[in-house]
Design goal:
The protein has 11 helices and 19 strands. By secondary structure, it is of the alpha/beta class. The strands form 4 sheets. Strands 4-3-2-9-8-7-6-5 form an 8-stranded parallel sheet. The structure holds pyridoxal-5'-phosphate.
Length: about 375
């Protein structure tokens, strides 16, 4: 039986994308970023495919994601970078997860959490103003790291940061952040630390800025076959996810019919309408009401009226569709269907959000599982 609403995840495409991305940074190790349920693609199968596909590291944001991976049987190099004072650092350390310290205080909390000696990477804020130690706080962090490592309390394994504008290669922030990062590398070395992993690049910088590849690159969005920005070509990668659903109803209507909540679309001629059984409760962005399209047999069918919680309506004027036919909300685009990037444009957001926010009632089907 076909699922009513299905996400097809092509693991062969994912592994091929990782391989293609390694060619952009052949000297660097590769961290596959699998946070947020692997950008909506499903944590466990993607993590497994990343390991099979040769990724040296996995990276996640939240401790819960890192622990889930361990509970799921993953035992390889794994880093987690967004913790709070209430975080159970001992559980993470005991599970062999590498942590990040963004302040001297946080490093101290990590150092005193477990009887095991934690492996910790230092994060410097080079100009994103999110996490990471900034200015004199970084000097503090380095001094604390030297002390705690000398006392055998921690092993400082890395130094890293994150770029604000990597998807705009010409933005002056990129030069400025690279310079601040290079100064930070100097500072830790001068202080006597020799972190083995130095890293700064996300997908966009992996593709556009070899000078920041250092020892490792962290690839997220491009590994899922989505460009970090529509202006930024990524030859060699292809979308991993196809999102599709079976039409739940098909009907003919005359001109002058108001469609969906608020009657925000009125038919201007007789047409046929199809009902797609997914909505914002499944993560389909309501902002794409009256703007998105779905693909069927090479045609694009426009969304008519408001996208509801569980369903939305499309115009079948272009295709003689029948109830039960599968329409593709987005996919690789090979058969004329929209891509996640097209939906992002329709919804006024970025493609990262389109795939990551998918929730609710999808069946995830994996192709190419090993
Ligand atoms: C999400 C994230 C990445 C991956 O970014 P992409 O643009 O998806 O490649 C890399 N590093 C950090 C710290 C992140 O939070």
């Amino acid at each position: 039986m076909t699922a009513q609403a299905e996400l097809l995840i092509d693991l062969d495409a994912y592994r091929a994308n990782l391989a293609a991305l390694r060619e952009y940074a052949p000297e660097a190790k590769q961290m596959a970023v699998v946070k947020a349920n692997a950008y909506g693609h499903g944590l466990f199968p993607i993590a497994q495919a990343a390991r099979d596909g040769g990724a040296d590291w996995l990276g996640v944001a939240a401790p819960s994601e890192a622990l889930l991976l361990r509970q799921g049987g993953d035992s390889g190099p794994l880093m987690c970078w967004l913790t709070t004072p209430g975080t159970d650092f001992a559980a993470l350390i005991d599970a062999g997860i590498e942590l990040t310290a963004s302040s001297a205080e946080q490093l101290q909390q990590i150092a005193s959490a477990s009887r095991l000696r934690p492996r910790v990477q230092l994060k410097v804020d080079t100009g994103l103003a999110r996490n990471g130690a900034f200015g004199p706080d970084f000097d503090d962090l380095v001094a604390t790291a030297v002390k705690l490592q000398a006392a055998g309390k921690v092993v400082i394994t890395g130094l890293w940061s994150h770029l604000a504008c990597a998807d705009e290669p010409e933005h002056p922030a990129n030069d400025s952040q690279e310079q601040v990062f290079r100064n930070a590398i100097e500072a830790v070395r001068t202080a006597g630390l020799e972190p083995e992993l130095i890293h700064l690049a996300n997908s966009a910088a992996t593709i556009t800025r070899p000078s920041v590849h250092f020892g490792l690159v962290r690839v997220g969005i491009a590994s899922y076959g989505i460009r970090p920005d529509p202006e930024l070509a990524v030859p060699g990668v292809k979308p991993v996810m196809t999102c599709r659903a079976a039409l739940a109803a098909v009907k003919s209507v005359p001109a002058g019919i108001g469609v969906s909540y608020g009657w925000r679309w009125i038919s201007d001629q007789p047409t046929r309408l199809g009902l797609v059984p997914v909505g914002y409760g499944d993560g389909i962005d309501r902002a794409a009401s009256n703007r998105g399209t779905v693909g069927l047999n090479g045609s694009r069918l426009p969304v008519r009226g408001t996208i509801c919680m569980d369903q939305f309506v499309v115009d079948l004027a272009a295709e003689p569709a029948a109830v039960g036919d599968l329409v593709t909300l987005f996919g690789p685009g090979d058969n004329g269907e929209p891509t996640a990037e097209d939906w992002a444009e329709s919804a006024g957001t970025i493609a990262y959000e389109i795939v990551t926010r998918l929730a609710g009632r999808w069946t995830r089907t994996y192709l190419g599982a090993r």
